[in-house]
Write a structure and sequence with these properties.
Layout: H1 2-14, H2 26-36, H3 41-62, E1 70-76, E2 79-86, E3 96-104, H4 117-120, H5 122-139, E4 142-147, E5 155-161, E6 168-173, E7 182-185, E8 187-192, E9 200-208, E10 216-223, E11 226-227, E12 231-234, E13 246-249, E14 252-253, H6 260-268, E15 274-277, E16 281-282, H7 287-304, E17 309-311, H8 319-328, E18 340-344, E19 347-351, H9 365-381, H10 384-389, E20 392-396, H11 417-420, H12 429-435, E21 440-442, E22 455-456, E23 459-460
Parallel strand pairs: 13-15, 14-16, 15-17, 19-20, 20-21
Antiparallel strand pairs: 1-2, 2-3, 4-5, 5-9, 6-7, 6-10, 8-9, 10-11, 10-12, 18-19, 22-23
The structure holds fe (ii) ion.
Fe (ii) ion binds at residues 251, 280, 314-316, 398, 445.
Catalytic activity: a phosphate monoester + H2O = an alcohol + phosphate
Domain Purple acid phosphatase N-terminal: 141-234
EC number: 3.1.3.2
Length: 467
């Protein structure tokens, strides 16, 4: 019986956000009425139905955006409190609760209602207690990560809040105590996940400029409504006569992220200049109404808030036209984040999407558009002037052309789509990369490590062998 009461009380308080499909859980009535037999069933059932009707009505009228919100009223003897809850309910975040109005209640209808006071009086108390801490959490930046813009004197900081706030980064060079005497401002955009709850979050992007190459900086981000913890980064070195240190991996999930602890430690030891995550994040970022994406981004903050975290999309980012990927990361260029290139020391690194070849429902023109962009970028990168300064041309994308695994993936097929292009041989990448002399291709997707001899047209070639 105690279980039933607790369960029903929890449904009464929190249940509305579970009713976005506007259907009632039949267990409500069964368990509630079982419980009600031991008290005054007639009054409680009436009260329960009244509250539930009101909840449904409010949800219909106010939950259009999918932004989880619920409103209910509590009659508690002499006062009636109207409690509004706004925002979403990520697993690790508190919902914001605001007391919107407190007004005298009508006289209690009958004495039996007073028997419910003992229950309901705890509700406004809980709500009031949660106000201060919840509001702070709502504006506080989280999921902080860095990305490189392509210019060594700049760095982009990206983070998430669940309410609108300004986008500010305060920073100063080290050594010395943090003074945060330098300020950079950026922009905020609203990202609405495509899941049933249409969860909404605010993505902040600030590019810090005029950095001194190689200099270490301390920073925090947010606004006067709430600041992140203190982080630090080292601005990338300028020029091409230095050897970048990269951590390269793909297919890292939110659970069982076995590489993460090593990455954390080695990041703290300043072993990396940048991280390349070659597609497939979190498994999947859109799962559980994008709450898995939130958790993953919180986890990698311990690495990505200190070192530029450069990415490309994988097949697990496909949902809702790669919207979680596009919105959560801030990659260089003006290409909606699916493909871009950047210079790092002696290397020109090209990141592109193999997924445009497989998810044609989002537009076959993307394959052509990306291919034309690759052609143009490779032409520039392999021009004599550019290549003499940056001799290494490196590509990174998710699905490989070749692999030796025994599964049904594209790379085990002789005529792999990535290698030979769409039916008819259009937009074949192997020919393109061979023509422009790409030195190194980095792939992921197959959960195994393979390093290959130089290969062209399924034949090992020693002409371009790398020592
Ligand atoms: Fe994959």
């Amino acid at each position: 019986m105690e279980f039933c009461r607790d369960w029903w009380m929890r449904k009464l308080i929190m249940g509305s956000d579970e009713k976005e499909n506007k259907e009632n859980d039949p267990r409500d009535d069964v368990i509630y009425q079982r419980f009600a037999t031991s008290t005054n069933r007639k009054v409680l059932v009436k009260n329960h139905r009244r509250i539930r009707r009101r909840n449904r009505k409010k949800i219909r009228s106010e939950n259009r955006s999918g932004f989880a919100l619920w409103i209910f009223q509590i009659r508690c003897g002499k006062i009636r409190r109207k409690i509004h809850s706004v925002g979403t309910y990520p697993k690790c975040a508190n919902p914001t609760v605001k007391i919107a109005a407190i007004q005298p209640a009508k006289k209690a209808r009958n004495n039996d209602l007073q028997k419910t006071r003992m229950w309901t009086s705890i509700l406004p108390l809980c709500a009031i207690m949660s106000v201060s801490s919840a509001n702070l959490g709502w504006y506080r930046p989280e999921q902080v990560h860095l990305s490189y813009t392509g210019h060594p004197t700049t760095m982009t900081v990206t983070w998430t809040t669940f309410s609108w706030t300004p986008s500010v980064v305060e920073y100063n060079p080290l050594p010395g105590r943090p003074s945060f005497n330098l300020t950079a401002y950026g922009s905020v955009s609203i990202f609405v996940d495509g899941g049933p709850k249409r969860r909404k979050m605010f993505i902040h992007r600030v590019t810090v400029e005029n950095l001194e190459p190689g200099q270490k900086y301390v920073y925090h981000c947010g606004s006067s409504l709430g600041w992140s913890p203190e982080f630090s980064f080292r601005a990338l070195q300028a020029g091409s006569s230095w050897g970048p240190r990269l951590a390269v991996y793909g297919d890292m999930g939110n659970e069982n992220a076995q590489s993460l602890s090593r990455l954390q430690k080695e990041t703290q030891m300043e072993m990396y200049d940048a991280i390349l995550h070659v597609g497939d994040f979190a498994y999947d970022m859109d799962e559980d109404d994008a709450q898995v994406g939130d958790e993953f981004m919180r986890q990698i903050e311990s690495v990505a808030a200190y070192v530029p975290y450069m990415t490309c999309p994988g097949n697990h980012e496909e949902k809702y036209n790669f919207s979680n990927y596009r919105n959560r990361f801030s990659m260089p260029g003006n290409t909606e984040g699916l493909w871009y290139s950047w210079d790092l020391g002696p290397a020109h690194i090209i990141s592109f999407s193999t997924e445009v070849y497989f998810y044609l429902k989002y537009g076959q023109e993307l394959v052509a558009k990306q291919y034309r962009w690759l052609q143009k970028d490779l032409q520039e990168a392999t021009s004599s002037a550019h290549r003499s300064e940056r001799p290494w041309v490196i590509t990174m994308a998710h699905r490989p052309m070749y692999c030796t695994n025994f599964d049904s993936d594209d790379c085990v097929k002789h005529d792999s789509t990535i290698r030979t292009g769409l039916p008819g041989g259009q937009y074949a990448l192997e020919e393109l990369f061979y023509k422009y002399g790409v030195d190194l291709e980095i792939w992921a997707h197959e959960h195994s490590y393979e390093r290959m001899w130089p290969v062209y047209n399924c034949t090992v070639s020693r002409l371009h062998m790398i020592a």
